[in-house]
Amino acid sequence: MSVTRTEHRDAPDDAAAAASGSAPAPNGRDRDDETADDTNGPGEATAPTWELWVLLALAVAVGVVGRFVAPTPLWLDEALSANIASLPVGEIPDALRSDGHPPLYYVLLHAWQSVVGDGDAAVRALSGVLSVLALPLAWVIGRRRGGTVLAACFVIVLSLSPFVLRYATETRMYALVMLLVLVGYLVLDELVRNGRRAWWLVAVLALVTGALLYTHYWAFWLAGATVGLCGWWAWRARRPEVRAGARRALVGLVVGGVAFVPWLPVLAYQGAHTGTPWASPPRPTTMVAVTFSDLGGIGFLDAQLTGGLMLLLAALGLFGRAVDNRRIEVDLRTVPQLRAETAVIAGTILLGVVAGYATWSAFATRYAAVFIPLLLLLVAAGLTRFTGRWIRAGVLAVVSLLCLSGLVWSVTHDRTQLGVLADAVDARAQPGDVVVYCPDQLGPAGERVMRADLVQLAYPTLGDPRFVDWVDYAERNEQADPAAVARDVLDRAGDDHAVFVVWNGSYKSFEGQCEALVGALGLARGGAEQVATVDSAFFENAALVRIPPAP
Predict the structure, then answer these.
(1) Average of per-residue pLDDT across 252-272
(2) Structure confidence at residue 491 (pLDDT)
(3) pLDDT, tens digit (0-9, with 9 covering 90-100), for 354-371
(4) How many Å apart are CA 209 and CA 202, to the nearest integer?
(5) Torsions phi, psi of 329, nearest 5?
(6) What is the mean pLDDT of residues 412-420?
(7) Where are the alpha helices (DSSP H) in 20-119?
(8) Are strands 328-330 and 320-322 parallel, antiparallel or unpaired?
C-alpha cells in the first residue's frame, strides 16, 4: 500500500479512477457524498478477464457441490431442529417455548421433511438449496454495487466461504437468514438507491423483515441498524428521491416489525426462562475476533489465517483506493461505495452487544449470519482494489485456496462423536439395555444414531432424549441429585440389563454431576467398563461407560 503521489505515466484516466473508487470527484468531494448515503456505487475498475471467469466457474461448481456434502451425523442443534420440525405444525410453537427460537424455519423444515424425508442428508439439503439460491442474488448485488468484477468476486467469496458452507450443510436456520438478508438488500436498493416508488416493494420489504424476525432473534439488531440508516437517509439525504425512498423503506420495516407482535408473548416467556445458559455475553472485540476467525472455518485450527486475510480485505473494501496496478491508497474518510453496508454491520454488532449485556445473553458466531453477507460483500470489494490483472487473480486464487481448505475440513470433519459411540454400544448391547445421556444435550444427536431396541433416557429428568427443555435450565440442573437419578435408572434397567452412560462433564450447570452419576451406577453394580473416552477432535464429544447387569 502507498499514499505517495502517483506519477503521470501510472495514473489511470479520471473516469476509470472514479469508477474503481480510486479518485475523488472533480470538485474535491466524493461523488457519493452529494447524497451523503452512498446511493450510487462505483462501477467496475476493469473489464473481467478470462482467468476471473475460470475462477468464478470453479468456485461455483465446488461451492454448490460442497453444500450437499456432509457425511457426519447431526449434532445437538441440528438434531433438535429436525426433531422439533417433525412434530405436528400446531405443536411446534409450544415446543419452541422451551427451546428459545422463533418458528419460521421449523415450519419450513416440517414441510420439507414431509416431501423429501427426515434422514440426515434430506434435512440438511434444505439449507443447501437455500444457500445455492443466494448465489444469483449475490451476483445481482455485486453488479449493482461495483460492476461485473465485484459481482464475480462476491459470488466467489460467497461460494467458497467456510462459514457459509458450514451452515449450508447444517439443519439450522442460518442459510435461510443469509438468503433473506440478500433479498432484503435488493428490495432496499430498489426503494432507496434506485428510487422505485412501487408500493409492492414496500410490501415485499415488510414480508422479508417479518420473515427474518420469525427466523432468528438477532435479526432484530439488523433491522434496528437498518431502521437507523433509513432514518438518517430520510432526514439528511440531499436527493429528494432518496429521502422519499427511505421513508417508504421505513414503512416496510415497521410493518414487518408489527407482524412479529403475535409472537411477542412467546418471546417474553423465552427471554424470562430460556436464555443462553451455556455462556456469558462477550466483549465487542471478542465478538469481532471470533467472527473473523470462524469466517475461515468453524473449529478449524488454521482458520485464523483465512479470517485475518478476510479482515484485511474488508478493510481495503472500506478504506482502499486503487492508485494504479501496483498501489492501493488508504483513505481514512472511507470510500463511499460500501459505507452504508458497513454502518449496518457496525450498528448490528453494537445493538447485539448492548442487548446481550442487558439480558445476559451469549453470542455464538452463527448469529453473525445476519450480517455475514454484507461483510463478505466488503471482502469482495477489497479484492477489486487490486486492479492489476494478474495481481488480482493471484490474490483471488490465494483466498480461494485458503477458503477451500476450511471448506474441506468443514464438510469432512465429524461434528459429533455420537455416531462412533453408537457403534460401540451396538457391539455390546442387548435389546432392552438402557442408555443414559448426561447431560441431556447429548440426547438429540445420540437418539438419532442409537439402536431402536434400547431404552434411552436423558439426565437429569430421564425424559425423552429427542428434546432438551431449556426452561429454567441452570436452576433445574443445579438441584438434580445424581445418586437419586442413578437409583431410578437401575430400577428401569432391572437386574438383567446393562446401562450405558454417554457423558461429558464439561457442560455448564452440570459440574461434577455426570461423574457422580457414573460413580453411583458403578458402585451399585460393582464396577464400570470404560468403553470410549472424550475425543476433542469432534465438535460435540463424549465418553462412554458400560455398567454391567447385576451379578
Answers:
(1) 94
(2) 95
(3) 888 887 777 888 999 999
(4) 10
(5) -95, 140
(6) 90
(7) 50-66, 76-85, 92-97, 104-116
(8) antiparallel
The answer to whether residues 149 and 46 touch, using CB atoms and an 8 Å cutoff, is yes
Alpha-helical runs (H) found in 320-364? 339-359
Q: Give the CA-trace dihedral at 339, 345, 347, 349, to 10 degrees.
A: -150
CB 83 within 8 A of CB 466: yes
> Please, which residues have CB within 8 angstroms of residue 526's CB and are 6 or more apart in sequence?
548, 551
The Cα–Cα gap between 293 and 300 comes to 9
pLDDT digits (tens, 9 = 90+) for 454-488: 999 999 999 999 999 999 998 999 899 999 999 99
Residue bearing cell 429428568: 461
Nearest-angstrom CA–CA distance, 60 and 67? 10
Q: Is residue 405's pLDDT more than 90?
A: no
- Dihedral sign for Cα 71, 75, 79, 82, please: negative
CB atoms within 10 A of CB 81: 24
Residues 219 and 367: their CA atoms lie apart, in Å, by 9
Cell numbers for 186, please give them: 435488493
Whole-number Cα distances in Å, 170 to 166, 173, 366: 7, 8, 11
Residue 140 CA, distance from chain mean position: 22
Q: What is the DSSP string of 187-225?
A: HHIIIIIS----HHHHHHHHHHHHHHHTT-TTHHHHHHH
- In the block, residue with C-alpha cell 437419586: 484
Q: Which residue has the cell 432468528?
A: 216
Our CA angle for 329, 332, 338, nearest 5°, is 85
Q: Max alpha carbon distance in the chain (Å)?
A: 93
Average model confidence (pLDDT) across the chain: 88
Question: What does the domain layout of the chain look like in residue ranges?
Answer: 44-412, 418-547
Amino acid in position 436: V
Neighbours of 51 (CB within 10 A): 15
Residue 69 contacts by C-beta under 8 Å, 6 or more apart in sequence? Answer: 169, 411
C-alpha cell at 247: 421513508
Task: Report how far apart, in Å, the C-alpha atoms of 521 and of each of 141, 462, 498 are.
Answer: 60, 15, 11
Q: Report the percentage of the chain scoring pLDDT > 90.
A: 69
| Of 115, 118, 116, the residue nearest 85 (C-alpha) | 118
Q: Encode pLDDT of 181-198 as tens digits.
A: 999 999 999 999 888 888
DSSP-derived letter for residue 368 is G
The per-residue DSSP string of 522-547 comes to HHHHT--EEEE---TTSSB--EEEEE
* Residue in this structure with the C-alpha cell 465429524, named with its chain if needed: 414
Burial (0-12, 13-18, 19+ Cβ within 10 Å), 428: middle
- Read off the pTM: 0.90
Residue 540, φ and ψ in degrees, nearest 5: -115, 120
Q: Phi and psi for 56 in degrees, rounded to 5? A: -65, -50
